[in-house]
Known about the structure:
five-stranded mixed beta sheet; alpha+beta
Amino acid sequence: VGDPVCATTHTDMIIRARDVGIKVEMIHNASIMGAIGCTGLQLYNFGQTVSIPFFTEGWKPISFYEKIDYNRRGGMHTLCLLDIKVKEPDFDAMMRGRTVFLPPRYMTVNTASEQLLEALEIAKENENGGDELTLTPAYSEDTLCVGAARLGREDQCIVAGTLKELTTVDFGGPLHSMVICGSDVHDLEWEVMKSFLKE
């Protein structure tokens, strides 16, 4: 996330270092946590930030769903940090006694959008065996979202559209993030976001 105090992992490292008497000095950096404001969405209208991990065939965690639901019920936007797989070990190679790392993978807005739609279906199944949700769902394929790639660079890409629409937008290379807009988008936010709407 860029800045050292924006991730719980970094906070844990600071605490552990201080516990054993190691001096900690922080150098702040640019971060998606602030840069996402260039989408026109006001930072004070954001709720809890969530991480979207790559799903695998046997592992599809949707713990982020409840946080998105909480945020949207409060009218707040949700910043979604998308998974990054760097220096992932190749377990097949390890079993043959070799240390090999898989090529880096960076989640795209497209993959995140598809997984969010899949998570909605999983939430329905978890709630009552696959029937329609008895509660209002946290979001739908028609929920307004904003995809962002390479913020702060000359080739940054920002596109606003429905969750379904973002599954097909070409955002280009990494790094990607996205926002699920709250149920109440302020007029000023909307005025800025209009320029980013998917055509």
